[in-house]
TrEMBL record:
InterPro entries named among the record's database cross-references: NagB/RpiA_transferase-like (IPR037171), Ribose-5P_isomerase (IPR050262), Ribose5P_isomerase_typA_subgr (IPR020672), Ribose5P_isomerase_type_A (IPR004788)
Gene: rpiA
Catalytic residue list: 107 (proton acceptor)
Organism, as annotated: Chelativorans salis
Keyword Hydrolase in annotation: no
UniProt-listed Enzyme Commission number(s): 5.3.1.6
Pathway(s) where this gene product acts: Carbohydrate degradation; pentose phosphate pathway; D-ribose 5-phosphate from D-ribulose 5-phosphate (non-oxidative stage): step 1/1
Family classification: Belongs to the ribose 5-phosphate isomerase family.
Protein name, as recorded: Ribose-5-phosphate isomerase A
Residues that bind substrate: 30-33, 85-88, 98-101, 125
Amino acid sequence: MAADAKTLKKEAARAALGHVESGMKLGIGTGSTAEEFVRLLAAGVAEGLDVVGVPTSERTEALCRELSVPLTTLDETPELDLTVDGADEVGPGLALIKGGGGALLREKIVAAASERMIVIADESKLVETLGRFPLPIEVNTFGLRATMLAIGAAGRRFGLTGEIAIRGTEARPFLTDGGHVIVDASFGRIPATRAFADELNAIPGVVEHGLFIGLASLAILAGKNGIRTIDAHS
Ligand SMILES: O=C(CO)[C@H](O)[C@H](O)COP(=O)(O)O
C-alpha cells in the first residue's frame, strides 16, 4: 500500500533527526512536516539528546513546550547550528517557496542565522520551476492596497500576472505572529527567481517574501520509493 502523506513527512523528519547531535543549537520550523520533526526530536530529548531550539512560530513554540523540547530565543542564541523546516516547493539549487503556514518571516530569519538548513518534505514538493504554489508575501498592514499594487507591477516587469489575494478575508485577514498580513500571489512559474526576490525586497511595504534562495543546504524528500536527498551544491 502506498505510504500516506503523514507517513512520508514522518520519514523525512526521521532522516533529518539523523543530522542532529547533542550540543546543537537548532532552528525549528513550522508546518505539518516540521511538527513531525518536533515530535521525533522530543522523543530524542526524552532519551538524552541534549539540544536547544529556536521555534519559528508561536504554533511551533507551543508544541515544543507541550513536548518538553528545550527552547531558547534568537536573542539569547543568535547563532544556530542547524535549522530543520518544511517547504511548499523545492526547486533547482534548493530554492524554496515557503510561507504556506504563514511563518515565513521568522523562518527566514532563523534559517539565515543557521549554519545549515535542512528542508524536509514529501517528494510532491519537488518542482522544476518555483511558482505552482502561490507565493506568500508578508506585507505591512499600513498601505496594504498600495503595496499590493506595487507587487502586481513588480510581477508584470517580470512577465508575471495572476491573482494577488489577501489571506483570510478582507474584513478579517490572517495575521502573522508579527502582526502583518500575507498576500498570496498566484503568478505561476517564476523563472528569474533571484532577480524577482530582489524586486520584491525593494518594495517598502513588503516585510518579507516566501522565496528562500541560498538558504537550504540539504533537502530530504520522502517518496514511495524511499528517501531522496539533494545537496544544494550537487
Ligand atoms: O513554510 C511553511 C510555514 O510558513 C511550511 O514549512 C510550509 O508551508 C510547508 O508546510 P507543510 O509541512 O505543512 O506542508
